[in-house]
C-alpha cells in the first residue's frame, strides 16, 4: 500500500489528461450539424409548397412567427359582457382592426 506522501508526489509529477479538440477551421467543426428541426422544415417545404404554391412562403412565415392568441365569443351566452371583459384585459376586436 502506498503512503499518502508518495501518492501526492506521483500525482504532481504525472501529466494531466487533456482532451483532444479539433482546431476551429477543421471540417467537423465548421460543418453545420443537421438538427431534427431542420429536417422537419425541409419536409414541410417539400410537401406543402406543392399544395399551397405561391401562398406557402407567407404561410411558412406565419407558422414560424410569434404566437398570437384568439378568443371566440359564444353568441348564445352573454356576448356583450364577455366582450367588455376581454377588452378591459387588453383584447382587441379583430373586426375593427381589419
From TrEMBL:
Superkingdom assignment = Eukaryota
UniProt xrefs under Gene3D superfamilies: 6.20.240.40
Protein name in UniProt: Uncharacterized protein
Amino acid at each position: 500500500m502506498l503512503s499518502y506522501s508518495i501518492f501526492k508526489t506521483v500525482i504532481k509529477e504525472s501529466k494531466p489528461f487533456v482532451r483532444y479538440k479539433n482546431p476551429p477551421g477543421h471540417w467537423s467543426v465548421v460543418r453545420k450539424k443537421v438538427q431534427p428541426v431542420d429536417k422537419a422544415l425541409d419536409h414541410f417545404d417539400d410537401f406543402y409548397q406543392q399544395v399551397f404554391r405561391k401562398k406557402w412562403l407567407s404561410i411558412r412565415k406565419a407558422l414560424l412567427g410569434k404566437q398570437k392568441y384568439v378568443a371566440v365569443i359564444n353568441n348564445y351566452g352573454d356576448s356583450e359582457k364577455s366582450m367588455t371583459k376581454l377588452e378591459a384585459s387588453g383584447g382587441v376586436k379583430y373586426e375593427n382592426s381589419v
